[in-house]
Amino acid sequence: MSGHGSAPILLATELGNGQGHLAPIGTVAAHLAGRGQRCLLATHQPEMAESLGLYRYAAILPAPVGTAGIQSVPVQASYVSLLHNCGWHGTVALAGRLRAWCSLLQLSGARALLVDHAPTALLAARVLGLPAAALGTGFCLPPLQSPFPAYPTVSAREQRLRDNESHVLMVANAALAALGAEPLPNLQSLFAGVELGLKTYAELDHYGIARDAQYLGLPDFSSGLAVEWGAVREPRLFAYLRAGDGLEALLAALHATPAQVAVRLADVPRSVVARYERPGMRILESNIWLRQALETCDAFVTSGSHGAVAEALLAGKPCLIQHFHTEQRLMARRVAAFGAGLGLAAGQPESFRPALQQLLEDTSLHQAAQQFAARYAGVDRKQILPRWVEGWMEKLAA
Fold first, then answer.
1. Do residues 197 and 245 share a domain?
2. What integer pLDDT is reported at residue 290 of this predicted model?
3. CA nearest 22: which of 31, 9, 11?
4. Residues 4-19, buried b or exposed e (16+ Cβ, 10 A)?
5. CA-based radius of gyration for the chain
6. Which end of the chain is more exposed for a tag (fewer CB within 10 A), N or C?
7. Are 50 and 123 contained in the same domain?
8. What mean pLDDT is predicted for residues 14-41?
């Protein structure tokens, strides 16, 4: 066991919204703190870290961040496009963030790095020769093929993928040269020697490609207030939605259903949409205990968060996934592929009511979701991340 005086491990998030990246990092921080390992947490979401109480386990630091600005490509073809849009588009932009991450790692005295969706931090660890580990879904940890495969919803020729990769590799190596560091032989080597933890299931891997890596499954880090449904046993719909095109049309469709409806809006004040409430339909502002809400409802409506979809399927509940961007479309596609849910394009409001009716009445959707739940029943999800991080710590000590 490491003592409190030992060099810290730096935990880091750099990209993404919501709790999907910070909640697992928080679980790791709590476990490491319990075993006497000092941790620091660099994040682009200090407010979320505060709301989750992660300061109890690690000192909170700001993560070096930047934006691609007008360099952002409108259609992401592969993981390389994601890198491009997140600051790997130009030498100065990347070198500045890379240097800042290197400085953070050096000044903190970190002996290792553990990230959830922080590719520039991983590159900094490579520059400094620090051991690293990375948690993520299939979207954040792509298959290590050359070139990186196209997202399944995107039609892209291999030559285009190679050209994109060549450009971003050139930018990365120019940034590395600015720091006097060795170049990358290819972008896949960003993950070389990194301990990878896929916190998903094969059925929910965004790419749908067989991998050698082990799927850990979804850790249990759900917390919050329980949803009270009342005594009347009508069909129960739980919805977890975000702001975006089609939100009000979807709320109107939910309002028109005969079901009991509980809606958690992550980033929209209740006052803005309170007119959609009715007897049997409530809009909730408090943080909801997602696992309880999904275990006690009949079906789930969501904006496509991987963690929320996985939680619903583990509870045996089919999903209606309203998708706005690539990651959500991929998740909707995967769930539809094994028959446990439906995709809902935000720009097609005329389809919302029929889709909700199908979600409630189509028994095949419910059966497929229940089969998914049965495949992964009996797993102690609270131990998924502690076991994984303990395995990594043993390798660090070797």
1. no
2. 93
3. 11
4. eeeebbbbbbbbbebb
5. 21
6. C
7. yes
8. 93
Same domain, 51 and 80: yes
Residues 6 or more apart whose CB falls under 8 angstroms from that of 279 comprise: none
Summarize the confidence of residues 380-393 as an average pLDDT: 96
Q: What's the half-sphere exposure (Cβ side, CA atoms, 13 Å) at 82?
A: 21
**DSSP states of 67-128 as a string?**
--GGG--SS--BHHHHHHHTT-SSHHHHHHHHHHHHHHHHHHT-SEEEEES-HHHHHHHHHH
CA 317 and chain centroid, separation: 20
Q: Domain check: are 165 and 44 in the same one?
A: yes
What digits encode the pLDDT tens for the residues 190-234? 999 999 999 999 999 999 887 887 899 999 987 889 999 987 778
N- to C-terminal Cα distance for the chain? 13
pLDDT tens-digit map of 68-89? 555 667 677 899 999 998 899 9
Give yes or no for residue 112 having a pLDDT over 60: yes
pLDDT at position 164: 92
Count the helix, strand and coil residues of the chain and give each as a percent rounded to the nearest 5: 45, 15, 40
Same domain, 200 and 244: no
| Beta-ladder partners of 12 | 42, 115
101-105, 264-268, 298-302: which has the minimum mean pLDDT?
A: 264-268
Asked, for residue 226, whether it belongs to a domain, the answer is no
Of 294, 385, 393, the C-alpha closest to 22 is 385
Mean pLDDT of 148-168: 90
In the three-class reduction of DSSP (H, G, I as helix; E, B as strand; rest coil), residue 217 is classed as coil
Instruction: Decide: pTM greater than 0.85.
Output: yes
326 neighbors 154 (Cβ within 8 angstroms)? yes
Phi, psi of 237 (to 5 degrees): -110, 125
Number of domains in the chain: 2
Rounded Cα distance between 205 and 332, Å, is: 11
**The tokens 């979701």 sit on which residue?**
369
Are residues 140 and 244 located together in one domain of the fold? no
Confidence (pLDDT) at 249: 93
Q: What does the alpha-carbon distance between residue 135 and residue 389 come to, in Å, rounded to a whole number?
A: 10
| Side-chain half-sphere CA neighbours of 182 within 13 A | 10
Query: By three-state DSSP, how is residue 196 classified?
Result: strand
Confidence at 4, pLDDT banded by 50, 70, 90: very low
| Cβ atoms of 360 and 257 closer than 8 Å | yes
As a whole number of angstroms, the distance between CA 11 and CA 58 comes to: 9
Mean pLDDT, the chain, whole residue set: 92
